[in-house]
């Protein structure tokens, strides 16, 4: 399979029974059939994510097709962590994270929670 972010090659992995594809070029990770929510609690899955500092620019590419069914993926924002942007396929339920995003998705720190509350407060006060 070809990565829709950089045209690199996806390598197939099985992590605790979850089928995952990781791009050998940009480090993007494709989770099949919504398995990202289950994988976020598996340390081995989190450890497979690339360091975000090593790969730059792939998050700017948001208009991509699903590498499996070739349908246009929907741009998503995590409801708990608004700074995490990923792509999801509404047809086959695949989810694509850029390098470092899945690791961030799996960790919701106190500092992130406070920043989110402050951001929401500021937005509400300016309305």
Outline:
By secondary structure, the chain is α+β, with helices and mostly antiparallel strands. It contains four helices and six strands; from the N terminus they run βββααβββαα. It has one domain (10-126).
Write the layout of secondary structure elements.
Elements: E1 10-15, E2 18-23, E3 29-31, H1 36-39, H2 43-47, E4 74-77, E5 85-88, E6 95-97, H3 101-106, H4 110-126
Antiparallel strand pairs: 1-2, 2-3, 3-6, 4-5, 5-6
Mean pLDDT: 82
Sheet-strand content, in percent, reads: 15-25%
Number of helices: 4
Low-pLDDT segments: none
Rounded to the nearest angstrom, the radius of gyration is: 15 Å
Number of strands: 6
The SS-based structural class is alpha+beta
Main sheet specs: 6 strands, antiparallel
- Helical amount among residues, as a percent range? 25-40%
Distance between the termini: 46 Å
Structural domain count: 1
Order of helices and strands: EEEHHEEEHH
| Strand neighbour order, sheet with most strands | 1-2-3-6-5-4
General shape: globular
Notes on the protein architecture:
The protein has helices at residues 36-39, 43-47, 101-106, 110-126; strands spanning 10-15, 18-23, 29-31, 74-77, 85-88, 95-97. With 127 residues, it is α+β, with helices and mostly antiparallel strands. The protein has one domain. It has a six-stranded antiparallel beta sheet, with no helix packed on it. The longest helix is centred in the C-terminal third of the chain and has 17 residues, at 110-126. The protein is globular, with a radius of gyration of 15 Å.
